[in-house]
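Teaching assistant's notes for section 4

Start the section by putting this record on the projector. Ask students to predict, before seeing the second block, whether Uma2 family endonuclease will look compact or extended. Collect guesses on the board.
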Amino acid sequence: MPALTWDEICADRSLADLPYKIETNRHGQIVMSPARHLHSRQQSDIHARLAKLSTSGYLLVEAAVQTTEGVKVADVAWGSDAFQEAHAQDETLTAAPDLCVEVYSPTNSKAEMQEKVVLYFAFGAKEVWVCDMKGRLSFYVSPTTVSEVSALFPQFPAQVVGQQ
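Reveal the predicted structure now:
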């Protein structure tokens, strides 16, 4: 099957009800990750906590970002008012929101998550968070630097709901 554009993938009704998050790789091939209960709980917890802390900007769930390595979908994202104004018409974001959050699933590798961190920063993210299976957050302030607290949301806890 030839590679599809992101718009073609989004328009394909046969892909609409899959219980998977869909991304693409650099070759335009579809990559799917099965949804799991813990992943959904962590994603929801992070979104809810960010909603309480953000006084401006816009929160996103499943934010599709076009990168040089395909479309990557941040589990949770926050964009400033300026970001939202600049990208309001994007079907697929052409830049990464100010904050991109990735939540580990059992199928994710450390290399895959690190690649996403690098890509989000390369496409304009100011901060990237990675949530592990135990709910511990790593606050990346650059592709290689992890801070103990978030620069964008310093009140955000370093731990959310996790695997017992």
